Amino acid sequence: MTERSLAEIAEKMRDIDVCMMSTHTETGGIAGRPMSNNQDVDYDGSSFYFTMEDSDVVAEIERDVNVALAFKGDDNFWVAIEGEGEIIRDKAAFEEHWNEDIEEWFEEGTDTPGLVMIKVEARLAHYWDGEDEGEVILPS
User: Which domains can be identified in the chain, with CATH numbers?
Assistant: First the structure.
């Protein structure tokens, strides 16, 4: 197992836009869905995803903040993130993380009625890079 820094992992993650976000359902199961990080890829342990207020993922995070993210990059690079989800309803924060490419799903941009943003703050990143693997524990 090789020790890598968050900066090294972030560099490998830079081109990965879509992840699989997993949350806990009301019945205790695990639900997963693909989510775009809206090309906000300067990874420092925080990632941001837009969705609608009435979506299952919002209800699941409000019930249980524990979230997992799974990313697959080029050259057999994988990252699994364990973290805490938070629902953000602040338009100024939306604008800070907005990308016009996602207007396909949210036609009124940051003014889309019912729009929310999910912030996932990582606690642990486990990576696989070919035969190399390791973990990075992020500071609280």
Answer: 6-137 (2.30.110.10)
